[in-house]
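Field: sequence (string)
Field: structure_tokens (string)

Example rows 1 and 2, in order.
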Amino acid sequence: MSTSNLSNIVSQLQTPSPLSPQKITSLLTSAKRELLTLNVLIPTPTTPSPILVLARQTLETGALLSIRLQQPDVFTRYYQQLLPFYEMPESSYGTDTNNSQRSKVTGLYLLLLLTKGDYAAFHTVLEGLEVEQAGEGKGLEGDEYISYPVKLERWLMEGSYDRVWGATKREGVPSEEFGAFSEVQLGQVLIGTIRDEIASCSEKAYPSLPIANAKNLLFLESEGSVVEFAQARGWVAKDGRIYFPQQQEDMRTEKDILVASGQVIENTIGYSRSLENIV
């Protein structure tokens, strides 16, 4: 069973010289064809170790290149194809047990789930890793690729948006692949999260706002976008203003309104300059 063709394709994909997206796609297609020929797209206990290593390396290369090409759906398919390889015992790979890119690929998948707001899947994957590491007497804290999305998720939940924003800059990411999409896509997540937070504070702070003011406050591009956003939240848009529905049980004091207004101002001033760069 010859693997020379597949080895040659992987070597071309890993060349330091930049390849065009078309060339990468063509090589990856050829690599998958070779994997099918070798019957190793799904590993088995009887698959020879050298072929198992090469197949895993091929799929990991495809996964990392798909991130660089900004193809998250393709990356997800590679990740799913890699899962059976990651479930194989280390002994199946012979002496080649330290060359896997599993941590990087898994960390990127966690980051992708975070950018999609899929927190349920994020924690499902993370809990599986924690159980596996605990069984081996290890922890995830020292893994830079896994700890990166874990920290980002924690900061998002804490509302530490400035820390998230700083970590998405290229100098704050653990590898080139993370920097390839984290700043833009996580930036969009940040905008949505902060927009919702400011909207919630605005509902408590004001009976209404001019649509023009709400556009700037919520980082929206047009007054039409404000109206759409308002309708989605159950607000009323008329006569150039946004009216927030009053709840019967909401007996707000002047102090409550001042506090909520202060939150709106603090959030807006604190993040507007950084976020407007990616709107």
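Row 2 begins here:
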Amino acid sequence: MAAEKRPASNAFGSSQLVVKRQKSNVNLSDGKAITVSNGNAAGGALTQATYRAFGRGFRYKIRHDGTVNRQWLNGQIYKYVIGVPKVVYQLTVPPTVLWRTYGQCDNFGVLTGHKGAVLDVQWSRDSRVLFSASADATVASWDLETGLRIRRHEGHDEVINCLDVSKRGEELLVSGSDDGYICIWDPRQKRSVEDIATDFPITSIALAEAGNELYSGGIDNDIKVWDMRKQSIVYTMAGHTDTVTSLQASPDTQALLSYSHDGTARTWDVRPFAPVDRQIRTYVGAPLGLEKNLVRASWNSKGDKIAAGSGDGTAVVWDAQSAKLLYKLPGHRGTVNDMETLND
């Protein structure tokens, strides 16, 4: 049973909510939001190897076959080919938008329903459902064959900053919000199944591969590791000097990557019985900038490179082992909120 939640605190203020904009009048496929997959009107599902999904001007996810980095800001999406940026498309509509990753990279679907900015999106394991977290304090699940919202998940009282999906066992969602709660969701249910109270707003979250541990970061600058069964903190990793905005476990599950408003990315040893000082390396070269967005960082699929957005308008790539700055890719005119390299 979910724990009884405390009333929303004015300390986190609703002033952070994004002003509602007029609903888009975009018409796709003669009134059908999403009915075409791989050019076939038979109604195939959106797959991880085919399309990109983007949030409302803040966050998005990509799944594709080729090696494509992802960044977005000021409505422009860039594809980097050997470090050379190429504008692929202009994003002007406010809802969650779906794009092809081949040919002209055309927009083929729009998911409407959130009343605030979409701050994070995640794929289901079978790639047939997209989960989104929004500033309207809800999580939504979307059917990618029909383009319809399956369910509106309610439980948070403030902006939801981050979202993750379990990799093993029963498929569960976890979300972190400005209300200071971590909510655990069964995608089949509207309400959260568990609510974990914390002392500060949550700005980043990640599940361990095995699903036994949960990592969270917030405005207290520390990374907390939770036992999912007991819903209690196992240990805390300190080192960042400002809000932790991104967390992601490494492909081999042995390390955790973080990024913070202190302008550094760091790696941490999350193996059992690791030394008390779990920090491994610090990566510099991706300053936060004045906008103070929730900048994200990520591993590549092999775990030998680390990428992050940056407040100076560049996308940054480091060697994971040496912390050497490998690439600083220009092209954007504002903060790059996210970057990821897949299938390299």
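free_text_note (row 2): Residues 11-93 have pLDDT under 50 and may be disordered.
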